[in-house]
Amino acid sequence: MAMEVATPAPAPITAPERNIILAPATVETHKKNRIQVSNTKKPLFFYVNLAKRYMQQHNEVELSALGMAITTVVTISEILKNNGLATEKKVLTSTVGMKDETKGRMVQKAKASLFFIIIIEIVLGKSDKFDSLVPPVTNGKTPEEVAKAETEAAVEVQEAAATEA
């Protein structure tokens, strides 16, 4: 007769502002070349420009997103690839189970006690043409500052074109 040994599950991580329990994920330190994308916080081209700067500094960038922001990450990746700036190295998808502690049931379906959030991670590397297409940054600004400035400049150009029309 075979004996099974059960290992105890780690304690769940609680998000106090919503009383939602997050299933424990692998512990990972913050990577310097990772961009966690939101589809509500910054404009699309902020992330495109930031990804270019990260590739300049680290030769690759990892774009990650949860749920509804997944389409934004895929769009960023496609823009960089279609412009000849990046090559796709790796695509990972996973799910994280969540339980609403206050209701004891799933937020989306009434009879279940668990729902899942989908996560995507796309790793892009510099293309062979990257260095000839993207000028080097020499002004000492962080990638975030450069991306913000480039995004603001693009918005100003669009607004100026709209007022002329």
UniProtKB/TrEMBL annotation:
One of its GO terms (cellular component) is nucleus. It comes from the Eukaryota. One of its GO terms (molecular function) is RNA binding. Residues 33-95 form the DNA/RNA-binding protein Alba-like domain. InterPro entries: Alba-like_dom_sf, DNA/RNA-bd_Alba-like, UCP030333_Alba. This is DNA/RNA-binding protein Alba-like domain-containing protein. It comes from Brassica oleracea. The lineage of its organism: Eukaryota, Viridiplantae, Streptophyta, Embryophyta, Tracheophyta.
